[in-house]
Amino acid sequence: MSRKLTMLKKIAFSSFKISPTFRLNAKQAGTFGVFSNYLLNQNNKFFSTNIKLYEGNISNAMNEIHQSYNKSDFAETQRKYDHLYNNLFRAHFDEIISMKDNLNSIIETTFNHIETIQKHFAKEPSEITFPLYKAKWGAGNVYQALGEYEEAEKLISQALKLLPKGNKDDGPRLKINLASILNYLGKHEEAFKLHKQAIEEIGPKVNWKNGMETASAFHEMGEYYLATDNNSTLRAIQCFEKALSICESFYGWTTPQTTKTALILSRLYLETNRIDFSIILGEKALVGVELFLETYDAEVITVSGAYLARAYEKKGFLPFQQSTITRVYNILRRKKSETDSNVYLRCVFKLENMLGACRYMQGSLQIAEQTFEKLDQLSGTISAEWIEAEPEEARFEIAHMRYFNGACKIGLGKYQQGIEELQKSKQMFQTLLRSDWVGRIDELLNEAKVRLATENNQA
Predict the structure, then answer these.
(1) Which of 2, 90, 251, 363 could staple 255 via S-S, CB 3.0–4.6 A?
(2) What single string gives the DSSP state of each residue in 230-260?
């Protein structure tokens, strides 16, 4: 038994397919920046207070703005516009959606008012506190939040052109904003250049005001390196490390951006065999996931926990691996009501699959076998749709389950049943072209057949 357990400790359990949020490829046009943009909105929402905005409030705000404008109180008009667009950008997504029908007219009115005010103060530029470029920037952010990226790109580009040449603070931030939008639209090369240019312009002058955008730029550059060049993992890690350093320095773990970067960096540390760093970041990131649970879907939560559990397994800390899986399972349960039932069951299957293997490696063969038997029953319910949606992932998980189910049965002396399960697993791994697993199965099969033959001869 100890020989088999030692052998199995070398097996890579985690078959979790990386979400586009964490691993991108060139074919996935438009995946860059989506999560970053969403989280930037979430960050603004987190730091704002009492800014619930809905139809009635925005109508009242516009009425007050019109009153100030009609009285030629342009200073107050600008102040109110600045406040309005800050709140629009920070508003909850569903609240922005509810105002979508009126936004075009609001934005058009804004531009007309601000253009008139700028002409009025042409000889007194210091009186212009909410210039047209800020109005365009704010409007672009609103369209970005609505998912209208082409309109957002147009407005942010216009804002950049209108930006006074002497403004060295807002320029880099606008470029990063535009780059994130371009990434979503699949214009990755252009976005990368903009990010790089913005970071060079900011230089060492990173502060709490531009830190979030700077961290986002480094993060998206890291995603770019991962997606476009298989030999750039080190560059990607360096970008993510810079992003995380900025986030921790200025915002701590009070923002989803910190957690988002930590999650992917933890995975990269695991894949480059920096296990201790992976565990430290993975633990912090999991706390961040719990703090901002609404930001993450069930699949991201499952993947995140799986990497931390995998890191503990590689260190040989199996009890910590088991407790991590249980902890993630409990977090996942809090997302059950808002998750598609099939997606939720897939996540449960993955976690239970890893948990069963962990129990097997700790020598709890009967408990592990019970886990895999339940998973076998569950697979009959979800496998068809899962295989259709994610064929490689589904087949790997089922093959993994059959492998360990077979290993448990052999360990418990149920040789014939174990051999049958291993043979089924082998066929699936052969289909997946996973020769590494096929080799492990053959080794265990040969050992089981020898034991079965010996048992039959003794009988």
Answers:
(1) 251
(2) TT-HHHHHHHHHHHHHHHHHHTTTSSHHHHH
In angstroms, the CA 128 to CA 77 distance is: 11
d(CA 395, CA 204): 49
The whole-angstrom separation of Cα 36 and Cα 177 is: 10
Q: pLDDT digit string (tens) for 119-161?
A: 999 999 899 999 999 999 999 988 888 889 999 999 999 999 9
User: Which position has the token pair 């629009």?
Assistant: 88
Provide CB contacts within 8 A for 211, sequence distance 6+.
246, 247, 249, 250, 251
Specify the amino acid at residue 239.
Answer: C
- The amino acid at residue 328 is V
Residue 173 · residue 160 · CB < 8 Å: no
Amino acid at site 161: K
Paired tokens of 367: 């408990």
Q: Which residue has the tokens 């639209």?
A: 185
Q: Is the pTM of this model over 0.85?
A: no
Helices (H), 318-390: 318-333, 341-361, 365-389
Inter-residue contact 43 to 212 (CB < 8 Å): yes
